[in-house]
Give the backbone structure.
Amino acid sequence: QTGMFTYDPGFTSTASTQSTITYIDGDAGILRYRGYPIDDVAEGGDFIECCYLLLYGDLPTPAQKEDFKTRVTRHTMVHEQMTRFFTGFRRDAHPMAVMVASVGAMAAFYHDSTDITDPMAREIASIRLIAKVPTLAAMAYKYHIGQPFIYPRNDLDYAANFLQMCFAVPCEDYVVNPVFARALDRIFTLHADHEQNASTSTVRLAGSSGANPFACIAAGVACLWGPAHGGANEAALKMLEEIGDAKRIPEFVNRAKDKNDPFRLMGFGHRVYKNYDPRAKIMQQTSREVLAELGRKDDPLLEVAVELEQVALKDEYFIERKLYPNIDFYSGITLRAMGFPTSMFTVLFSVARTVGWIAQWKEMIEDPEQRIGRPRQLYKGEVERPYIPIDKRG
Ligand code: SDX
């Protein structure tokens, strides 16, 4: 038992972390935040409430929620010097590259909340990350499209504020679409935490050495970017666009089954879920709400996605391997409909997952048994052999 990782020397890949935050039953397709089913948290509350729940372990009272919301809202501006930091990037840089850099750069701007042994510093760093990562994400988007940065507004809720920072322009008033704001708020909640996924494990491992909290979250952003993880939402939408028409679904399903073809159905399969990802159900319903708001109930991309899901779920290959749609399968359709380019999909995932990374980081840091993570290996290299001087080599 090394606090963060327990490992049995007989098993090289079994490393389990103890946590009280998120519970997943992959076979039953169950996900709960602090014991509350994801459907109830996503439908009954909002993302700020979800952040409070993940960070402090229980649903807030109205007064606690209002206080927490105010603390987050009043930290949404970033140090003005950070705007200059952005100007060093190429405009066509992928927004996730900018996110890895700018979240890490918070370690160079916010010195007074990095003493991880001080509970108050940990609290301030947590609030700053939840509050400022959306602002940095919106800045990455604005910089990418060559528009001026838009400041956060304290009169708007979390998701609405993010939408206005992304889509408002100085030349005219911007009115947040309440259906989009509600949908995005729910999407943030669905993506908030997910037990010991690759990026969360990255944050825990980085944090176990006592590293700067902002740098640890930047490490999580870097890991999430991969197409096998958070990058799958971008890849899934591109796949649906490439399929284009339900008539081409068999061609892509056959490619996904062909061992000689590296193509996989993006947004399908999961390391843990061997049943339907409960988040994917809510995501599909959310995509229908947003498309209906746009008068696009029969959106061709959604039709391809629903038909692809039906075909795959009846196919022996997918049934045998228990491959179901995951959260990334429908999220891209929804985000694209709201106006986000595919390059921003994983950025939005990182905005939402920041609270999960922080909650898991705090739990690890505050565990008195916690020690530096040190996964072991099964050595499969050369046995000992004599060194050969270079003049004796062939
Ligand atoms: C996320 O861990 C988390 O919680 C992550 C996440 C979170 O909230 O943090 O849920 C977010 O990352 C969701 C996953 C997004 N990724 C994708 O959608 C990419 C496409 N999916 C695959 O790459 C894959 O399913 C993984 C990476 C998600 C899971 O891989 P596994 O569990 O290791 O599965 P595997 O690679 O061992 O595959 C098992 C079998 C293999 O076939 P066989 O070798 O047994 O014949 O299933 C096949 C795979 O070839 N397979 C697929 C497939 N996924 C697995 N075949 C076709 N299409 C797929 N999508």
